[in-house]
Write the structure tokens for this entry.
Amino acid sequence: MFSNSASATLRGIDGQRVQVEVHVVTGVLPSFSVVGLPDASCREARDRVRAALSSNGFAWPKAARVTVNLAPSQVRKEGSGLDLAIALGVIAASTLDESRARKEIEDGVERQPEHQRLPPELLLDHAFIAELGLDGSLRPVPGVLSRVAAVSDLAVVVAPAAAHEARLAGAAIVRSAGTLRQVVDCLKAVEPWPDPPRGSRSADHRPPVPDLADVAGHPFARQALEIAAAGGHNLLLCGPPGAGKSMLARRLPGILPDLDDGAALLTSRIHSVAGLGVPANDLLRVPPFRAPHHSASMTALIGGGSGRLRPGEISCAHGGVLFLDELGEFAPSALDAMRQPLEEGSVQISRAHASVRFPARFCLVAAMNPCPCGLLGSVEPCRCTDQARRRYMRRLSGPLLDRIDLRVHMQRPRADQLMSTERGESSGAVRDRVLAARERARRRGVPCNARIVPGRLDDLAPVSDTGRTMLERALADGRLSARGLARVRMVARTIADLAGEDTISEQSIAGALALRARPVLFDTLGVTHV
Ligand SMILES: [Zn+2]
């Protein structure tokens, strides 16, 4: 006796259709095996399925060899999302067809009770994506958005908590039920499918983003934040503890444009696969803000893992902001691993069993103390030894700093600034300028100025004669490297866009050069290469 139903597994952030075939032979030594490259958690389905069947009043086939084959067999299957399909497959493959049932009755065997039966053909029009609890309840699994997209030609059955995500994935028919028993009864039309729960339409799902109006002072750093948002440039905020570095960084998503449809779908899929969930009524529209702690593991930051390959924080920040507070405390190897994604907008994760590419295009905002004691460059004298400063500097990977176009030194706000009742400009007003600048970039055919390819700079970012002289001077006296030159021109392009100018003036170049200041620490140690 045989049954076949559809489900889906994950490969990176993509869903992959899986056919769950179940074969039951009775009158032999009992066994239950799952074949077709299941991973450890997928193999554990055996125990969950057995318990769920028993809790929901289904008898396990007596003296039966149950074989579950997950096709295509060369694709690795992960996680518990196939549980429901396997359980229904076992019930369907154990259901005797009418002629066989009649013969067994003639042979004096008790008729299979009706509530145990599920004709295998009832499974064919559906795909089943849910984990089973030991009590037979349906539970949501990560990556429903991607999995459902792989089987959207079928009616999709998911856990009630995942119904909104399945609808966002574009499935024509989404069904959900609370338990395995209820799914079987609905498939047999003994009872109607319950209405999938809907999130309340009126609820505002946009997470609150703090407003720039709360930030007192810091005109230079505020300007850098605006330029970072308008051009997609990476930003380093350097300053003593209490200078307001993270307060400022957290306000960046509030001045970024909302994600467009493509980016919203991609970012939502990443968040769903990472188990972060998606909003109740819509895809993620607000640019994400991710702030991993400096003690986070390499896997948590970059992605990977020993079982299923999971997206890391850099991918969860896709389309938004990755904030690295205390940059100097991150493991140098982790910072080193960020260079490829910063360059390419994605990260390749390779393991023995699989290799996947996760999107990772984010705006990097890093914050650091200027030196281990934090006082370098402020009014109080720094208490660090030269050796301590050198050790601190070595932790910052030079090539990473090289990819940060905007570097700002912040001071603690003065007492009169803290006491002032005057509020700063609001995020809304700044965001309007950012949107206008981005629109200018889009009209030139680039999503943002940080992504202009160097070969097109002369075409897209023409510099005025006086600006050119200024750049030549900076190159000649060693303040600017050849690599830095292209980056400065991109930042100057953004400054000119914010001012509504087509050609890059001397002021825009001067602004971009001033924003590429070396951290004070590097100056005190005589390092000139960044
Ligand atoms: Zn110090």
Remarks:
- The pocket of zinc ion is lined by residues 371-373, 375-376, 382-384 (CB under 6 Å).
- DSSP finds 23 helices and 18 strands in the chain.
- The chain has a mean pLDDT of 87.
